[in-house]
Amino acid sequence: MRAAAPAQPFAAALPWWLLILPALILMLAFYAYPLGEVLWISVTEPEPGLGNYERLFTSPAVQRVWMTTLRICVITTVITLLAGYAVAYVIVSSPPGRQRWMFLLVLLPLWISVLVRAFAWVTLLRRQGLINEALLGAGLIDEPLRLIWNEFGIAVGMIHYMIPYAVLPLYAAMRDIDPRLVPAARGLGASRFEAFRHVFLPLTRPGIIAATVLVFIFSLGFYVTPAILGGGRTLMVAEYIKLQILDLIRWGLGTMMASTLLAAILLLLAVMARIVDLRRVFGQG
Amino acid sequence: MDRSAQAGPLANVIAWSALLFLLLPITVIFPVSLTDQRFLSLPHEAPSLQHYVTFLTSERWLSSTWQSLVIAVVSTILAVAAGTGCATGCWKLSTRATELVRALMLLPIIVPSIVYALGIYRLWIRLDLLDTYLGVILVHGVTGIPYVVITVSTALANFDPRLEQAARGMGASLGQTLAWVILPRIMPGVLSGAIFAFIHSWDEAVLILFIASRALFTLPRRMWDGINENLDPVMAVAACVMILLSMVMLAADLWVRRKRDG
What we know:
The complex is a heterodimer.
Chain A: H1 10-44, H2 51-58, H3 60-93, H4 96-107, H5 114-125, H6 130-137, H7 151-175, H8 181-187, H9 192-203, H10 205-220, H11 224-230, H12 237-247, H13 251-275, H14 278-283
Helix pairs in contact in A: 1-13, 3-7, 3-10, 5-7, 5-11, 7-10, 7-11, 8-9, 10-13, 12-13
Chain B: H1 9-33, H2 50-57, H3 59-93, H4 96-110, H5 113-127, H6 133-157, H7 161-169, H8 174-203, H9 207-211, H10 219-229, H11 234-261
């Protein structure tokens, strides 16, 4: 960050503020204001008060949705982190030429519509899908496996979506580690595992925290993939919100769930901001 | 130094399995789009272009593609104009207030779409903007601003502020300085931001469910309905069209980056 600029005379600063103004007006009028209204509706409809929030503690349906969401998000985050860590580790350890190719493989899915990817998973995982057909054809199974329209299908789609978001911060953390440290530990008699466990792993802690929080936050509010691969049978919070608003027209309950989701995400971000530099996490995009 | 010795066999197996897993869904779409069957599958006898013919002669799919393109292009222009101005102003002033403005601009990539969707749905009902080009373009444009602000801010971080002062000192007006000194130097960042903003609108599938219903049916919206209804193989063709455009954009982005770094 640059040193604080000396206070600029108002007349000199004005034209630059005019440059900022269109974006500021757009963002306030068409983003911040409607977002604020979501919070407002959650405490005013159907009647003023915290009645909607009471349901977090009293409604079994609401609690079930949150438990399902948390369970799937935790599973997704753990598996994504393990896979992402291995990928980042192998990329960092590869010669530069191969690094570029592996990076392209990681970034490629990020460029493809989340809807297209969910559709591809439907093609692969459904009852008459490619995977079941292949397994049946090879005589490995007698009847199709239930790979979709349940939590398994959701987790597969979500892990696929999240892996690149885990690899990027993990790679950034690993790249900064002095490459001589692990060989030095090995030279001093540490086994491969000991060198990893006591030297490399602790140094990647900021990357692990950033990746965990990022993946968990994105998972919490994820809509498209859980809605398609869950097939309406496994409800996560985002789809539950959509049902409340578009199908049941229960604005109070829907906005309460949305506000709670937003609060959870901001809380997690605040926790992360205390541990790692947020600028580095969001600046690398 | 040979660092490949670091990664053991276990790490290699997990990493390469993960990479294959990442590629798997992308690689099946194209073969499936060539199926000769009337349902979603790999070709049984021989590859066939019949579903491409269906797509290219379907009024519905073509109009969706056209609507998606128009919305993406106009909302990208909106996001780039607003985002570039904002990032430049914040960079020059660099006060506590502009830090706050910049944080505000990042809001749309932190807040889940579903939360914002409720608010904008409600506002558009009131302003009678549901199911209109203006309504969708405003929403896609505003939510595209963060991508432009991020890429342009990154480009500006490498721009020597003394160049701007020199130009102003020699009598260039603010407009001239922007057009001839600043903008040419940050062009790669602006282009990168435009590519991200375009893709953001082209792929957007959550907000559109709320703010459009009949008159506007973007490509993601039509795919969404198809996945939930009939799983027609034409969907695989539509998916290929969407992937193709993404790949063109990825290539453009790599090209911009190479020009900048080279």
